[in-house]
Write the structure tokens for this entry.
Amino acid sequence: MIKLVGIIVQEGESIDKALKRFKKKYEQAGIMREFKRRTFYTPPSVKKKMKKAKAIRRAQRMMMEQL
């Protein structure tokens, strides 16, 4: 799956502001995260630990939202 990120630079918009918008879209698309995931081999035991930690964080977040 290929994700393309692009922005349209508005007339009179500074390059810095356009770059900031691009970086934000790039981050939200998760391109770097996906690249790192595909680049490095993660052993099944580590994947299992990460999945468990993610579930714990999700459960804690749900508990905090209920309070």
In short: Residues 15-66 form one domain. The chain has three helices and no strands. Residues 44 and 50 are 10 Å apart (CA to CA). The helical segments are 15-29, 31-39, 44-66.
